[in-house]
Request: fold
Amino acid sequence: MLGRDLGQGAGRAETVVAAREEVLTVTGARNAVVTLDRNGTVLLEDTTALASDVHRTRATPASEQQASGAGDTFCAAASVALAVGTPVREAVSFAQAAADVVVREAGTSVCTAEALVASVSAPAETVVDHDQLADAVEEARRAGRRIVFTNGCFDVVHRGHTTYLRQASELGDLLVVALNDDDSVRRLKGPERPINTAEDRAGVLAALACVDLVTVFATDTPIPLIERIRPDVYVKGGDYSPRDAQRDRGGPRARWRGRDGRLRRRALHECCRPPDPRDRGGQRQGGGQRHGTGRCDADRPRRDRSRGTMTRGARWSGEWGRPADTAPGGSAQVDVDVLIPTVGRTAELAATLAGLAAQTDVAFRLVLSDQSEAGDVAERPAIAAMTRILEAQGRPVTLLTHPERRGLAEHRQFLLDHAAADAVLFLDDDVWLEPGSVQRMLDALRSLDTGFVGSAVQGLSYLEDRRPHETEPFTLWDGPVVPEVVRRGMPGFDRWSLHNAANLVHVAAELDVEPGGWLPYRVAWVGACAMYDRSALEAVGGFRFWESLPSGHAGEDVVAQWLVMERFGGVGIVPSGAVHLEAPTTVTDRSVDAPDVVFAHEARHEQQHQEH
Reply:
């Protein structure tokens, strides 16, 4: 119907979700169910606002001989459920259960009422010991099911955990969660942990619909358990490195959190081989590559051997001398345009670019616009060296001069007019970013489906300056990010104090965020480092309000973010990873506060309302 190949595996469902409007338009239906054989079904509803809210079912895999009649059974069961007034999501789940009954039988069969009741009423023993787990996994494997395995402490389960587990479940047919017992949590996290006992933690995880089996292990790593059940897919979060994969080797495939909030794949048997007994000192007796010295080949970006092209991360130094024929640069391949306005800075800008060069896990383009009088910033040795490094990494670099100074709002609009990527990161020229910061912001922007995500800059000279009265307004987002209106004097404006000094550093230290993770929180605005959904920013006019401002102004980022927030929502993420270099400002004329001008009509309207 769509006239294109959906591909294979879990990615097919994502393709269908992306084509929701097209499917509903072509079919003329209010709701449509797309069946994906062993990958279950995807329900496309005209009321679905977020991809994360799409209803999916997962099928019980069966051989081709047993799959006969599953589609007919699904349609018949769904029709019956809808005919008696069952809500559409429940009707689709009911139909999937009926189809699962059919595929368990050999040849063509029917789903009787008794068989269906027995199937959906069977008690689910979700929390199991290791012997029960091994038996369940073996039975699932004989049925052709794909086994997905993950592990962790899961002491304080939050939205990031549940999103991660839901995504992990989409990588196979049976999700196993291995839970550290209380003693191993204490060894890993300190004597005050865990907050919740293993029994309670297991009960919470077992209650999640995406989790099939939960077991508890007492060792510091899950290696013995992995070696016993040999899962098909081993899933870990963004804090999990290839070195950890080598350590936790067991033969499965590992996947990491990646672009679009999804999980990127790495094959352990290809990039993190265990030591080979034929190796001596890392060199095989018969010659060949070194794999058994503890070095992990996945520590560097790899080539996709199936196509011979570069991966989307930065090219490592061993590839700088090769032609960057397919470096992650062309506009179609870039995830983020990093837009930097600069004037009169060299050392600070060089540090900013060095931080960007360390963002090796995301495809971005640098767009640098210089307003210095000579227009020669890009020619200064430190800046020229850093742009050469970025280009060697395969990063496209666009250098612009914009000498006429009409204020920062106009300069930001000038940069936005040169953007092409779906996401744009406005980054000040005196901000250093921790490695992984850009990818975390992009993950948050896409998975939260919001208008902008900010990483507030922190002044590390204030590390000993604790200000609990300024961090009091800190509030995590609980549930989907929704639009909100923030103005001076309104609820939410007091959040501005969160980003003073090193306040966010102190807030992050009190949160249980694993390395590489992030949590969304409510903001008044985020200065100096904010990533926008470009379509959302342009939908509210971008920074075109510059025409109503004198050149001497500040607060233009506040205006843009307030406009985006009230239509599309906006968040900050913690930990931030953005460090302010604490150099003097180059915007010396700040006589006009942009929000006071742009939103003046609102103030007049409120005054007139009070007068009447």
Q: What stands out?
A: The longest helix spans residues 88-103. Residues 336-600 form a domain with the Spore Coat Polysaccharide Biosynthesis Protein SpsA; Chain A fold (CATH 3.90.550.10).
